[in-house]
Specification:
The protein is an alpha+beta fold. It contains 5 helices and 18 strands. It folds into 2 domains: 145 residues, no CATH class; 150 residues, Phosphoenolpyruvate Carboxykinase, domain 3 (Alpha-Beta Complex), CATH 3.90.228.20. An 8-stranded mixed β-sheet has the order 1-2-4-9-8-7-6-5, with helices on one face. Strands 11-12-16-15-14 form a 5-stranded mixed β-barrel, surrounded by 4 helices. It has a two-stranded parallel sheet with strand order 3-10. The longest helix is centred in the last third of the chain and has 18 residues. The radius of gyration is 20 Å and the shape is globular.
Length: 301
């Protein structure tokens, strides 16, 4: 029997997670990015179970690497990660640089039992304060799991304005956070200004925030109304894109594990369905609230 103080329950993107700490030196981080995503354990049954424990053996053993993400340590990227496989079981494998408390982490994903076994190697013998969705393993696992529900993770900002969700996607540095800030000045709630989970919701789609590594935010979501591929421009404008062009533009900003044809196919279908349902627009903007007024004039009714 796992003690209750070694268990936490979370709801992320509408998916419920039960996380068990199986190592006595692991303590849940009360200030971590996922802290405010916790929910009461008496809510409906768990969808996925995470078991976290230490393993002092060299990882990942005789597993085969089938997809490589980041390949080298960088100043802003102090880890390397890959997808590995052994027989019918797959896993997410992360190696951290020498300055990290955690040396390596591997998460074995059993999609038949909705079970994730997370093994961590560390040189520390003292108490370790850990967020169960620590970066980057947490978001990589969420990306892996949401595709089972017809969804995906995307680099974008999304705001909630009077119950309608407006999503703005682009590569880093274009202005996702700036756009979200402009809407906030006009009374909107920012769902997230960096990465989001997108999941089908009946005949439409819903955007959810995700736990962030550097700050806390409560769990939020909003039904998507319109989507925009943004760019900096001397003039404010937007124009509707053909379904496939808009979908491919959005797809380029999705987190993708491009090794599984089924995953790739399902993700493309989801983005095309999203484009058909909500419409995707090219949007050039200046950093002022005029663009907010333009969009609301056209779509805010």
């Amino acid at each position: 029997m796992i003690k209750s103080e070694n268990t936490r329950n979370y709801s992320i993107g509408g998916i419920r997670f039960k996380v068990n700490s199986l190592s006595p030196n692991f303590v849940f981080d009360s200030k971590g990015g996922s802290h405010l995503f916790q929910e009461n354990p008496t809510t409906p049954k768990t969808t996925w179970t995470f078991n976290i424990h230490t393993n002092n053996k060299k990882l990942p053993g005789d597993w085969k690497e089938i997809f490589k993400g980041s390949e080298k340590f960088e100043e802003d990227l102090p880890y390397k990660w890959s997808i590995i496989k052994k027989d019918a079981l797959e896993g997410v494998y992360v190696v951290f640089d020498d300055s990290a408390i955690v040396n390596e982490a591997i998460a074995f994903v059993d999609s038949n039992q909705n079970l994730v076994d997370i093994q961590i190697t560390t040189n520390s013998t003292s108490e370790i304060i850990i967020d169960p969705f620590f970066h980057p393993l947490g978001i990589l696992l969420l990306q892996y799991i949401v595709h089972f529900y017809g969804g995906f993770v995307i680099h974008a900002s999304t705001i909630d304005y009077k119950g309608k969700g407006y999503l703005f996607s682009a590569i880093s540095g274009i202005g996702k956070s700036t756009m979200a800030g402009l809407w906030k000045k006009c009374g909107a709630t920012i769902i997230n200004d960096d990465r989001l989970i997108i999941l089908p919701d009946g005949d439409s789609f819903k955007a959810y925030n995700t736990p962030m590594p550097y700050y806390q935010d409560s769990s939020k979501g909003v039904a998507l109304h319109k989507l925009f591929l943004i760019k900096q421009s001397p003039d404010n404008y937007f124009k509707k894109l053909p379904v496939l062009k808009g979908a491919l533009g959005l797809l380029s900003n999705c987190m993708q594990f491009q090794y599984d044809n089924n995953q790739v196919h399902n993700r493309l279908n989801a983005v095309i369905s999203l484009s058909e349902t909500c419409g995707i627009y090219e949007c050039g903007f200046k950093p002022d609230t005029d663009i907010v007024e333009m969009i609301l004039h056209e779509f805010g009714k």
